[in-house]
Each structure stands twice: as C-alpha cells, then as structure tokens.
Records
---
Amino acid sequence: MFKKTSLAAGVAAFAAILFAGGYAIADAQKVDFTAMSAEELAEYIILESGGFHLDAAVQEGGTMRARMEQDDLQKACSVVGGGKPDAATLEAVRAAAAASITYPEGGIKLGDWQKGRELSWSGFGYRVGHRNDDHSASRQPGGNCANCHQKVSDRDGGTLGPDLTGYGKMRGTSDAMLKYVYDVIYNAHAYFPCTQMPRMGAKGVLTQEQIADIMAWLLDPESPVNK
Ligand code: HEC
C-alpha cells in the first residue's frame, strides 16, 4: 500500500491507533487513503481530519497550529533527506543561539540543588496533541533532563545525551564552567549547533532561577550527582 519508509510505517501505525481508539473522523468514508502518499496521509490525519484540536489554546499561549510552524533554527537544522547542515549554516545557528542567551542580573550563581533535582526529573511540558490534558498554567514545565541524561544512581535516565554522573566533580565550578553550563541549558545550540537538546531558556521552558537550581544539581559538591 505504501512505500516502505519509516514515515509510512509510522503513519500507518498511527492511523490504526486513531481508528482503534474509536475517534470519529467525520468524512473518513469519503477519503481514499490508499490513493494518498504517506506525506498526504500524514497531513490529512494531522491537519484535516479533526483528530487533533489544532486551534485549542496551549499552555504557553498561542495555538497548536502555530506551534507546528518550524522556527528559523528548526528550518536551518532540518536537512531534507537527512544528513548534516553545511558548515556555514551550523555557524549561523551557533551565532544566533549565542545571541539568544540572557543572563541573570548579578551574574551566574548556583541555586538550590534540591529544587534542581525535581526540575531535572520532571518531564511535564507545554503539551500539545491531547484532547484531555490540563493546559492551564497551574503546572509549570520541568527540564526533562533525565529523559536524555544519566545523572545519579538513584534515578536512571536516558542515553540520548552524555552521562552527567559526577559532572561537577569532574568539571569544577570556575566562572568559565558556570557560564558554559548556563549557556548549554539556556540554548545548547551555542556550543552544539543543531543538537537534539531542547532550548530550555531560549524557548521559555525554564526561568533563569530554575536554570540556576538545575546547575546546582549538576555542579554543587553537596548534590548527589557529585557524591
Ligand atoms: C532531548 C534530549 C535532551 C534533553 C531533554 C536534555 N539534553 Fe542535555 N544534551 C543532549 C545531547 C544530545 C547533548 C550533547 C550535545 C550534542 O553533541 O548534541 C547534551 C549535552 C548536555 C550538556 C553538556 C555536556 C558536556 O559534556 O559538557 C549538559 C551540561 C546538559 N546536556 C545538561 C542538560 C540539562 C541540565 C537538561 C535539562 C534541563 C538537559 N541537558 C536536557 C540531549 C538532551
């Protein structure tokens, strides 16, 4: 039915879930799915069928429909067909990311590692694509760091990013190090252009204070990360 691309497989699986879940797609009868390319089917399911509430407000303001527009960095980093952007694009992304970073008045200091521990664990975010999530501002997003990074033995983590166990013990807390870690959490593209690490500060997910708390979790000698 479809070319055997991973996109087609994903779309087919997604469509199966939609139908199995009993979502009423009003005009499903009139649409010939078999005549669509994988991309057309994906667009149909996501944008036209009513499977998502695209015009619903999202927690940070705006709509899901607006969220689906790539921003400049995402466009620059999305190479059609896979592969790496060229050197000039990577340098432009790096420079724009560095320029996006704002610093706390009075300089970068370590905050409270206990708060940082909770924030680095919390995967709650500005959600989209759900019909029944609570999108009110009552629950603020966390950093979701643990989903990509191993931190300490009492909490397992993901392996997409480097293992951060013992991070402060290895790297210390010099001013240069504080700036580097602040920058990486605020907008990691300033050092790793087109990285998969989300732009926690630049996209307004974490405040400067929350970044300081997470930095303490990584760098404070008292934090379990460094024990
Ligand atoms: C979606 C996955 C993902 C999430 C979520 C994520 N990171 Fe990362 N992080 C990465 C990747 C991947 C790298 C490696 C950079 C690269 O080469 O792209 C990285 C790099 C880093 C580095 C630099 C490591 C070094 O060797 O100096 C630090 C520090 C870091 N992340 C901290 C965090 C913190 C703190 C959070 C939560 C606020 C977080 N990361 C959330 C994927 C992630």
---
Amino acid sequence: MRRLLPIYILVFLIGCEDPVVENTPVDLDLTSITYEPKAFEYQLPIQFPIFEQPDDNQMTEDGVELGRHLFYDPILSRDSLMSCSSCHLPSGSFTDNLPVSKGVDQIAGTRSSMSLLNVGFHYRGLMWDGRVNSLEEQALLPVEDPIELHTTWPEVIDKIQRSELYPEMYRKAFGISNTNEISKELTAKALAQFERSLISSGKSKFDRVNAGLDIYSPEEQMGFEIFFDTNLNLPDGQCFHCHDGPLLTTNEYNNNGLDEAEDWGDFEDLGLGGHTGNLFDNGKFRVPTLRNIEFSAPYMHDGRFNTLEEVMDHYNSGGFRSKGKSTFMDSISLTTEQTAAVIAFLKTLSDPDFNDDPKHANPFE
Ligand code: HEC
Ligand code: HEC
C-alpha cells in the first residue's frame, strides 16, 4: 500500500522558500568553514557627517550580506508570511507607501513606516517618537510585535538553526563555531549592519550640485533659496531650521502643527512625550529626512498627506493652533509659483540609484 506523505510535510514542501530541514541537529560543528572577516567598504556623499559604528558590531562584508538575507526573509515572521521588507520596500525608499502599516495578521498600526535611507546616521533616537536607542535594539522588536511579524524569537532561531542557508552565513559573519550559538542578538546585529549600509548614493541632483558637478534649474534654485532662507527678495520658508544639513534633518523632535491641541494633554498621539513622560514633549515627532521624499508618500507619522502639494498646503497655512508648536511654524503663505519651486527643489533630493542599488535588493529574487 502506498503511504501518503503526512500533511505537515506537504505544507512544508509547498510553503517554504528556505529549506528548513526538520531533522537537522541544532548543534552542528561549523569550524571547518573559514572565518575571514573583511571590513565593509562604503562611500559617503560629500559633506556627510562621520559615520559611527558600535565597537561591538563593526560592519563586515559577510555581516551585511547576512543582514540583507534576513531583512528580506519571511522566516522572521509567523507562518513565514512577511519580512522586514514587506513594510520597508526599496522602491519606496524603504517605506511601504501606505498611510499606516499592517502586520502579519492584517491589523493596522497607528504609524507610517519610516524610510531607512541613511538610518545609521540617526543617532538621537529611532522611531517617530525616539523610543528606541539603537538599530540593534530596534531589530529585536518587529519579530514579536503583534501588529508586525508576530512570532517568537525561540521559534525564529529554531528555524534559522535548521535552515540549509544560514548556519554557514552566521559562521562567516560572526565566527561562531556551532549552530547552537545562533541567537537573536546576532540576528539583530546582522540586520543592523545591513541597515547601516543603506547610505545615499551621492548621485542625487542635490549632491551633484553640492559637489560642483551640476547646477539647479531657475525653479529649483528659487525653491532652494526659499527652503534655506537665503534670498532677501523671497519669503523665508523656514524649512532648514528643522530639515538641515546633508541629511536634511536635525534629528531633533518638533511639533510642526499637525493637530489642534489647546492643552498638553490634547494630542491623540503623544509622540516623544509618550515615551519620555514629559508633558512638554507631547505632540513632538522626530524630524524625518527629506532625501528621496518623492518616493516615500504618503507623508507624516500617520501618513495623512498623500502628496507634496498637500504637505505644502500645511506649511503655507502654518498648521493648527497647537500647544508647544515650534516658533518656526508661522504661515509662510507662498505663491503658487513659489510653492511649486519648493517642490521642484525637494525633487532634487531624489536618489533613484539608492532605491535601485542591487546591493540593497532582495537576494531571493
Ligand atoms: C508591519 C510593518 C513593519 C514591519 C514588518 C517592520 N517594520 Fe520597521 N517600521 C514600521 C513602522 C510603522 C515604523 C515606525 C514605527 C513608530 O514610530 O512607532 C518602523 C520603524 C522602523 C525603524 C526606525 C527607523 C528610524 O529612522 O527611526 C527601523 C530601523 C525599522 N523599522 C527596521 C525594521 C526591521 C529591521 C524590520 C524587520 C525585523 C522591520 N522594521 C519590520 C513598520 C514595519
Ligand atoms: C519646526 C520644524 C519644522 C519646520 C520649520 C519644517 N518641518 Fe517639515 N517636518 C517636521 C516634523 C517634526 C515632521 C514630522 C511630523 C510628524 O509626522 O508628526 C516633518 C515632516 C515633513 C515632511 C514629511 C516627511 C515624511 O517622511 O513623511 C515633509 C515633506 C516636510 N516636513 C517638508 C518641509 C518643508 C518643505 C518645510 C518648509 C516649508 C518644512 N518641512 C518645515 C518639522 C519641520
């Protein structure tokens, strides 16, 4: 009599991209595989700040490569349905282009996915409210978050230890000598290494102009001057007070008047105050980078604006009366032509070479 394959093996054969071998022992000796770490080489666009890496997680070629695989691998989620990249897609400058993200159970959160472009330079706290200190710490969270990947670390580590692909990659990245040393901490370190490699290409028009290799069109030039308040004959856009420097963010926390709030307690999302507990921090959010802003719509922490035109309507009006609103948030009342000029300047920050870089792409495709 022919025996049918047990149903769980069938599901396994159909459902998995990474071969996770059920009976693989989790204490395989890996010392026969050579461990020769090579420092990861990167190039910074002109005027970028110094790139700091934690002493205990210096980037290596193999570490970044492992992180890239993990980032795109649904092995990190319940039922292997989603990966980090489901909410951080290269085509959206590593956002999901949704107002707010949905997790593996299709439950929507309250915040919009953030671009991971130059995320290694955000040293004053991560997330819209700054509640996380490092990329290593951040990378531990989505796996167990019920509105994100919604599984458990022991389950994920078990799958990684039994996979055909990963034990060798962990050996090459971290020099472990046995599969049983694969841990959530090393997994987070690899993810963080990959994320730090997500650096601007330096080929945006903005970078090329800074390097003296290109010039702005008259419209872009007008937008630049309004953005940086450099022309006495044009209105001050005030943008640079918060979106400054080569990263186009001060990395600080501000209230840019998105919500009407008579009192400190009136904000629906408390932002920074929600985690510091300081009333005066309520309603403040991290100033996001504007690099690649053309590709990361919709905008703001809750994705409320669909277009850059809507964003400019907000800044033109100065936003709502709101407790703690920044003094730089006056109505700027630009003309239609001036508003279009600011948007034209914002588009010089586009860096399609970054989105399309094969080094950032899904290794399983
Ligand atoms: C369900 C969608 C979803 C998944 C899956 C997801 N993220 Fe995110 N990510 C978000 C959202 C939404 C935020 C902003 C959250 C907030 O501020 O509360 C965010 C924020 C971040 C940030 C902060 C960026 C910054 O500039 O502060 C990092 C880093 C990050 N995610 C990395 C990852 C990694 C690594 C994974 C996989 C382990 C992952 N994300 C999986 C939706 C997701
Ligand atoms: C007082 C500081 C401040 C000023 C001035 C300011 N911004 Fe912002 N900007 C912010 C903050 C904070 C956010 C995020 C707010 C949130 O989502 O709660 C933001 C968000 C944005 C976004 C959406 C980014 C994203 O990823 O969703 C764009 C676009 C933007 N600002 C453009 C501008 C332009 C153009 C100007 C000048 C006309 C300007 N900003 C002036 C602080 C400021």
